């Protein structure tokens, strides 16, 4: 175990900007990036007592952020598929009613 300052606030302040830069490679919307960053730090905070080094905390941070991005991408795909199916159904219904 390394000799690190196990203070969540310090970790947050030291890592927030690098996490935002990392997320910017996945997303281009600032509000989405901030939401994912917030959710990432919530997950880290919930597991904070079990984290024994800054290296482990950073690994959890980047892994959590990446997984949250993947989850949002999947959700966007499902949303888009649903929208497309609704539009297609409305298009078919419009043709049938004419």
Summarize the structure.
The protein has 98 residues and is mainly α. The chain has helices spanning 8-24, 30-46, 54-97.
Question: What would your notes on this structure say?
Answer:
This protein has 98 residues and is mostly helical. 80% of the residues lie in helices and 0% in strands. It is built from three helices and no strands. The protein has helices at 8-24, 30-46, 54-97. The N and C termini lie far apart (73 Å).
Low-confidence stretches: none
Helix fraction bin: over 70%
**Distance between the terminal alpha carbons, to the nearest Å?**
73 Å
Instruction: Describe the oligomeric state of these chains in a short phrase.
Output: single chain
> Strand-and-helix sequence, N→C?
HHH
Largest sheet: none
Query: Helical element count?
Result: 3
Structural class: mainly alpha
Number of strands: 0
**CA gyration radius, whole angstroms:** 20 Å
Overall pLDDT: 89
Overall shape: elongated
The portion of residues forming beta strands comes to under 5%
